[in-house]
Specification:
By secondary structure, the chain is an alpha+beta fold. Helices cover about 35% and strands about 25% of the residues.
């Protein structure tokens, strides 16, 4: 491998994860940090740490020049962006390479192509990947959009061409609603992404969200099977599984083969995820987008395949070919990941920064907790509320759920509210256990089934 050191251009649990993976490969690690993260676990773990600015992300983790200056000062060979922040910024990837370093991920050209949802859809169609009925590209104006929805029928989704992460999406149930939402969606897209372009897709009712993990070295391409990501709140994933629930072997084969075909068509290098909507009634699946980075939920794939995806990314960036062939990759058992956030699920998921006064994590070979927490850690108010990911493994889904309930009972994060109660309730739910859910399931479940525990009776005053 032709890299000996790596700068980690991120924070939180993914920075800790990359630090540990890089050290396992014998690499020197350099951690950038904002003023809010100077005492973080990632900073403590790294061989070297460099302050890149104040707490606000736009003045630190999103500041390309500040990150590049740190990389040059530390004389690193590579930069790993993690997820979020600059991970899918094609200009950043190009700048890293122009500065004489390796970018741990695909080329800027691939990020640019696949980051544009319309261009990615066109590329998917060329690779033979099924796509959702819709505009097939950006729509010129409202009149052109009306003609498309008249053809494909309602409900439809109005989507930002440059959107991502579930943002920039509106659903219209009829033409009047569509006409109201179209200009609003364009204005919001322009404000959020600097691009007001829109495209139209048929809304698949009660769809499931299934994604395929891919790896490529630019010449060889494999899949690491699929994940189930249908339990979502406001289009943000809450709970993920591998493998997906209820897919037939034939559907799984077609799904994974299509993801590899797309990776091959763009000469993909690094780890990525091809995301799909799955219509359980018809057993059809449709391409949504490609995430050109490591995913938050990558540990469930690691748990069932035995691969270390972050180490694989580093090896690829270091010029090595894929360490595995497709026939070497198999699924053993089942894994579930719960995202543990610093939010109060009984107060509309209000973010809750504060000091973690105590931490207790169950430790068995079937339980993994990816986190940056330690007792005394002060959760800052400036960033995403993710504290960690509780990941469990079992010989099948039933055993996995039993282990998950055990792990959730044993995981204690004291001092701040977290979403642990939400996951305890989901793990005990009959529909979740039976796999009867879809991307809109959780919203209704939260409204109708999730309630705070009964208040303790007040103690009678002493007489």
């Amino acid at each position: 491998m032709n890299i000996r050191s790596v700068l980690i251009a991120n924070r939180g649990e993914i920075a800790v994860r990359i630090n540990r993976a890089a050290k396992a490969l014998g690499l020197r690690t350099v951690q950038v940090y904002s003023a809010a993260d100077k005492d973080s676990l990632a900073v403590r773990l790294a061989d070297e740490a460099i302050d890149i600015g104040p707490p606000a992300a736009k003045k630190s983790y999103l500041d390309i020049e500040a990150v590049l200056a740190a990389a040059r000062a530390a004389k690193v060979d590579a930069v790993h962006p993690g997820y979020g922040f600059l991970a899918e910024n094609a200009d950043f990837a190009d700048a890293v390479v122009a500065a004489g370093m390796k970018f741990v991920g695909p080329a800027g050209s691939a990020i640019r192509l696949l980051g544009d949802k319309v261009a990615a859809r066109t590329e998917a169609e060329k690779a033979g990947v099924p796509t959702v009925p819709g505009s097939g590209g950006r729509v010129a104006d409202l009149e052109a959009a009306e003609a498309i929805v008249a053809r494909i029928g309602f409900p439809v989704m109005i989507k930002a061409a440059a959107g991502g992460g579930g943002r920039g999406i509106r659903v219209a149930a009829d033409m009047d609603e569509f006409r109201r939402q179209f200009p609003q969606a364009s204005a919001e897209a322009a404000a959020a992404f600097g691009d007001g372009g829109l495209y139209i897709e048929k809304a698949i009712e009660k769809a499931r969200h299934v994604e395929v993990q891919i790896l490529g070295d630019g010449r060889n391409f494999v899949h690491c099977y699929e994940r189930e990501c249908s339990l979502q709140r406001r289009r943000q994933k809450v709970w993920e599984e591998a493998p997906a629930v209820g897919l037939s072997p034939e559907v799984r084969e077609r799904l994974c083969r299509s993801a590899v075909a797309l990776a091959r068509s763009v000469g993909y290098s690094g780890a990525g995820t091809v995301e799909y909507l799955y219509d359980e009634a018809s057993q059809d699946f449709y391409f949504i987008e490609v995430n050109t980075r490591i995913q938050v939920e990558h540990p469930v794939t690691e748990m069932v395949t035995g691969l270390d995806l972050v180490q694989e990314m580093l090896r690829i960036a270091g010029g090595e070919p894929l360490s595995v062939r497709q026939e070497d990759i198999a699924v053993a058992g089942h894994a579930i990941e719960c995202r543990i956030n610093a939010e109060d699920p009984f107060k509309n998921f209000m973010p809750w920064p504060g000091v973690v006064s105590g931490l207790s994590v169950p430790e068995t070979e079937d339980i993994r907790f990816d986190t940056m927490l330690f007792a005394g850690y002060a959760v800052p108010p400036f960033y995403d509320s993710l504290l960690g990911k509780l990941v469990v493994h079992g010989e099948d889904r039933t055993a996995c759920l039993a282990t998950l309930r055990q792990a959730l009972a044993g995981l204690k994060i004291e001092g701040i509210p977290t979403t642990i109660p939400l996951h305890k309730a989901l793990a005990a739910d009959g529909d979740v256990a039976a796999g009867r859910f879809h991307t809109r399931f959780l919203e209704g479940w939260l409204e109708n089934r999730f309630a705070p525990p009964p208040a303790e009776p007040a103690k009678e005053a002493a007489r």
